[in-house]
Amino acid sequence: MNILSFFGAPALMLARTVRASARDGLSWHECLRQLHELGGRSAWLVTSGMAFFGAVMVTIADSQARKMTGNLPVVGPPYFELMVREFGPVMSALLTAARGGASHGAELSTMSVNEQVEALEMSAGDPHADLVAPRVVAGLLGVPLLCVLGTMAATLSAVATASWVFGVDGTAFMDARYVDGWDVVAGLVKAAGCGLYIPLAAAVAGLSARGGAEAVGEATTRGVVAACLGCLLIDFVVALGFQALRV
Questions:
Q1: Rg (alpha carbons) of the chain, rounded to whole number
Q2: Start-end of H helices in the chain
Q3: Burial label, 45 (beta-carbon count in 10 A; 0-12, 13-18, 19+)
Q4: How many CA atoms lie within 13 A of 57 on its CB side?
Q5: C-alpha span between 164 and 219 (Å, rounded)
Q6: Helix or strand run (H / E) with residue 126
Q7: Contact partners, residue 83, CB within 8 Å, separation at least 6
Q8: Hey, is 38 helix, strand or coil?
Q9: What's the predicted TM-score (pTM) here?
Q10: What SS3 class is residue 27?
């Protein structure tokens, strides 16, 4: 897989989806159902995963602080900035990609190998408008919300770990002196970019599946891998863009 096909295939899928949705309209009932499938069913995974991540980060920070300053609370403000701008959005998106990418990929590939997609096309339906568009809308809405939820879980976990395990003032990890509006914007841009890419990557893998059960498994794996790598690449590109703007 080269970089052109990695981003080119989802970009082409997005163009076809936008064109089909403009022509056929969008089912908001299906969008809400997909939002529940992606956001609602991923909330527990993102919350618990980010809580563990926040606790691990504070444990590592304590180890580093003991070597350098001996004062754990001093790393609280930069920790909070990194969580808002970097780790919160990216790690939450990766957890969502692992579950949502697998769910979308498995469902769409199963429909493809069972010829349900062909049946939809024969009945004058369009899989881009009926199957892909609601998932894209759900990703654009659901992933940013999950990133906010994950960031809050990691921050509260850091506060609890610092206070109960290391016996220091945990509220230092909610100190927003280094956080400004651009940090929030950068985090939301990353979350929205991942929310757009995850369903598109899964749709590319799922709708191209041909064969039997083995093809479903391969398509699901491709969808998850592409969604996770896409999130990391989007994080890198957005970080470079904001670095170039020096904000």
A1: 20
A2: 3-24, 28-35, 41-68, 76-82, 88-113, 116-122, 127, 133-164, 181-207, 213-245
A3: middle
A4: 26
A5: 44
A6: none
A7: 54, 57, 151, 154, 155, 158
A8: helix
A9: 0.91
A10: coil
Dist CA 175 CA 167 (whole Å): 17
Fill in the amino acid letter for 32: L
Let me know: does 242 contact 186? Beta carbons within 8 Å: yes
d(Cα 181, Cα 184) in Å, to the nearest integer? Answer: 5
Instruction: Provide the token pair at 50.
Output: 């980010």
Handedness of CA 95, 97, 100, 101 (dihedral sign): negative
How distant is the alpha carbon of residue 66 from its chain centre? Answer: 34
Phi first, then psi, for residue 113 (nearest 5°) are: -70, -25
As averages over each run of 10 residues, the pLDDT of the chain (247 residues) reads 75 95 92 93 96 95 83 89 94 95 93 92 91 96 96 96 92 90 95 96 93 89 94 94 82
